[in-house]
Specification:
Largest sheet: 8 strands, mixed
Number of domains: 1
Strand content: 25-35%
Order of helices and strands: EEHHHEEEHEHEEH
Radius of gyration: 16 Å
Mean pLDDT: 95
Bound molecules: coenzyme A
Low-confidence stretches: none
Amino acid sequence: MSDAMVTLHTPRLLLDALRDEDAAALYHYRADPAVSCYQGWCPASLDETRRFIERCAAVAPDTPGSWFQRAIRRRDSGQLVGDLGLHFLAEAPATVELGISLAPAQQRQGLAAEALRATLGWIFEGLRKHRVIASVDPRNQPCMTLLAGIGMRREAHFVESLPAGAGWVDDVIFAMLEREWRLRHASERHRG
Ligand SMILES: CC(C)(COP(=O)(O)OP(=O)(O)OC[C@H]1O[C@@H](n2cnc3c(N)ncnc32)[C@H](O)[C@@H]1OP(=O)(O)O)[C@@H](O)C(=O)NCCC(=O)NCCS
């Protein structure tokens, strides 16, 4: 499947490939401590952000062991509002891990939930995967609320399992199975 085929539409958003022109906007919000504080990646410079976009362009979806990255844009203006990543786990090929970031000015408008719902549809219906997971620092309340809100189950809580600076942080795993998504999707359709 080519990267160009993976463009998702929602009522307000378009999810497609990150482009060179996105570098400044991407750097601006990804380097913001409010966005990066619970994340594994925080770009140190605009150049590093450009190299990140270049690397993303070389990754095809469903490549074992890779992160496949999508831009999240406003459908009306094309403005980059965030990005999301899909990690295709080499050791568990039927499982996909999700990660998402929204620029601070774009948060709390339901955009992350809208982007993730469309992405879950693509993962389960398009790619026919069995399970989706997300790994969250439990202090990241917005993300915990987001994942619970789209119907992911809080499945595990690992205590001080991840290194962070000189210490350790907890890791909460949220998950959703294909059959859970199908049930939820059917009831959402039923409610209209
Ligand atoms: C987590 C994040 C993506 C949420 O994005 P968002 O667009 O604001 O989320 P939404 O507007 O779709 O809101 C989804 C739910 O989370 C809740 N929420 C969002 N931000 C919140 C906040 N700051 N405090 C409390 N709840 C919050 C919303 O009220 C909504 O709840 P509901 O389903 O009960 O209505 C965003 O805060 C972010 O980019 N954070 C920094 C990056 C990060 O930590 N990413 C997570 C790594 S997996």
